[in-house]
# Entry
Amino acid sequence: MRAIVFEGAGRPLRLVERERPVAQPGQLLLRVGACGVCRTDLHLLDGEVDVPAPPRVLGHQIVGRSEDGRRFGVPWLAWTCGVCRYCAGGRENLCERARFTGRDVDGGFAEYAVADERFCFALPGAYPDEQVAPLLCAGLIGYRCLRMCGDAERIGFYGFGAAAHVLAQVARAEGRRVLAFTRPGDERAQAFARELGAEWAGGSDEPPPEPLDAAIVFAPDGALVPVALRALARGGTVVCGGIHMSEIPAFAYDLLWQERSIRSVANLTRADGERLLALAPTLPIRTRVTTYPLERTADALADLRAGRFSGAAVVVP
# Structure
């Protein structure tokens, strides 16, 4: 089969021919129909998040079909121990021995992949492969971030990419008010946010028209955390939705006072996936995707880095 292989931080991805993987007991062999491109893939490529044992096939928003024709989605969470206090307490996303797709086990930038069947999702039939792929990480992490906002009515999204464009639709369906903050001057992203129901969109260097009840920081820029804090009403929450973020600069305690809070979201649970994938066709969530053939995976990542598309990128082998 053909696969895109990561060989080390800072090194270019390579298209190679390798043996088709073999499923072990409890695993599924999947023919990959689509695999979403995620900012986490950039963090892996750049060495900001470690890949323990390269070479590795990246990609963790996999849509594939098993040998008997069933369609499954494979998320970032590939395996957990099931017995630690986090797993036992319903927080398997925090399992200290967890393995992750495209980091600890080979992912979906390939023609075939294997995955633990227990961590695969049956997918709703309403979506083509490339349309459902972004739900498997961008959608799931965003959905978990939204749950951390409680009953917040006015929510600011800092960064309006793959996750935010899914989450804006969920938030609006729940009757929340969405305000979008983009790179200063990015009028295309601001127009896209308004198209998806944001009542206000502007640069991250602009204050919101009124205080926010919560803010979700999707962009991996730590400098946005005090910016988001400054935009909060009393008792508001800033949720950091990325696996990696640049250093958060020092800020005055006054920004945190009056029971404001900062928290992060790590990974996902299978329950998150089951809930979002059941909800998606009922709203319905519509994803905007730009597709790339397998041999152009590196271009997809470069375009993500440069912000050259709206919505999400998807590799279609």
About this structure: The longest helix spans residues 162-173. The CA atoms of residues 124 and 277 lie 7 Å apart.
